[in-house]
Amino acid sequence: MRPTCVDKVFELARRDPRVAYIGSDLDPPIARRMREEMPGRAFMEGVSEQHVVGMAAGLAMEGMIPYVHTIATFITRRCYEQVAVDLCLHNLPVRLIGNGGGLVYAPLGPTHLAIEDIAIMRALPNMTVVSVCDADEMKRFMDQTLDWPGPIYIRLAKGYDPIVSRPELGFEIGKAILMREAAGRRDRVLLVATGVATTRALAAADLLADEGVACSVLHVHTVKPLDTEALLRHAKGCKLIVTVEEHTLVGGLGSAVVDALVEHLPGAMPPIKRLGIPDAFARKYGSQDQLMEIYGLQPPEIAQTVRDGLCLRAA
Amino acid sequence: MAIDLAPAARHDPSLRLDERSILLRRLVVRALDGGARGHIGSSLSLIEIMRVLYDDILRYRADTPDWPDRDRCILSKGHGCIAQYVMLAEKGFYPHEVLDTFCRLDSILGGHPEAGKIPGVEASTGALGHGLPIGVGRALGLRIHGSDARVFVITGDGEINEGSVWEAALSASKHRLANLTLLIDYNKLQSAGPTAEILDLEPLADKWRAFGFVVAEVDGHDVEALRRTLRALPLDHARPTAIICHTVKGKGLSFAENDANWHHKSSIKPDLVAQMYDALDAL
Question: Residue B164 is nearest to which of A41, A51, A56, comparing CB atoms?
Fold first, then answer.
């Protein structure tokens, strides 16, 4: 989804003169082509995230729709005040494209792991937070970014992730997608996931189906605004809810889901288990998949959490 | 292409403020009285800069604040906002009575300026170091649209401690933004004390030159000198301009001048208001 995202920016820029692109010392070949074809509105700025976000705000104030692209930790942590004040307070249509959301940069260590990006972005008024699950969904999403009001944080995964999204399920910013339905089963489990964690949740549901455990999988590509209506519809009457995210347990999807359930299903909240990264910096390197396994985010670990949850419930 | 610039200027303490400058300061006191608080010293050093901009330099339409061809004026040192509020009232963006509501619950005029609330305010500022990056983006946006509108950013001196200012300076120079002018209110005092002691900015003009700006220095309370310099813009057709305005914090209030204790006051009582008016009457 990483190349797809920037390809789509180029495509959008070709058909809409309001689109601008700003790289911050991250320069895929497509960005170079953009600068050649439309030098006036494709920029390569340096390692200057604070400035780049302010510059994007200024361009948006002049009617442009800037897409800012750099590594996820740097575009969220380094320039948080600029994101809050320049983008969110002014409610400007700037799109922040964060490369390597979650554990993608595992071998590079904790300075490069964007494990709290969703939490800090969703804490800001007016911000929309989107984490799609694959490149096909990225295409459907990017088409909708042109006219979405206000800023968007776009969390990119590694790239070349397996395609699990389906065009017939459509895509709308702010509308969760039921990717798998445990229809008619009263003892069903609901898995709620975002980004590439959805891919793992779907695989876990396959494992559990073989054992007679029926799981629905709700893909929450837009963590903010949360699709509370869909969440409540699918959560009601569940035997167990498990949230899955490649993100700290502090303030991410799991927190958003629990907040909504506490608010709207008082007294009727199903048992819930949140899977994510504990409140600690990573101490290991390796690969994204290895770290996801350690954090219990791969299909076998997700399936085991469901089994444990059901047993606990039964007990 | 560059024009000859006046030699480095300093503020001339013998310079007398004229009637308009005194009137504008009385309006600052009016707002301070209305809100019973405010950044006193930081607003008063800005008065002549904002006066000359709004009286003589900026293109705008008070009845159409979002007129596309207007010059964009971004007060990056948002804490000096009373100086801008006074000029916006003077120019008819809103009635003078609005100054009396400064910082009150339902006022449009807060302790820092907010775009979208106040007609004529181009960006919400207050957090320091945001104005110049936004100004760079706006200048690029105007270039994209083929507009000849200009961008003016006014920063404080303590404000340029912020790294974001220098990031934006690199970019403004790289993009040869001749439509961007930075004015630095160099009153040499930041909140906690003298800039020379807290984080020395000197040699300030050399720094801006090194970052690719064409630099002018001016007495920031000398209305004629400000006019002359600003009317000469752009000082270079391929570079952004930095104008270092040598000013006095608290200018016009004899008891507050050059005193960091008057940076901000949060409980302004009627006797202090009277004292401020008396000091202005004595000019």
Answer: A51
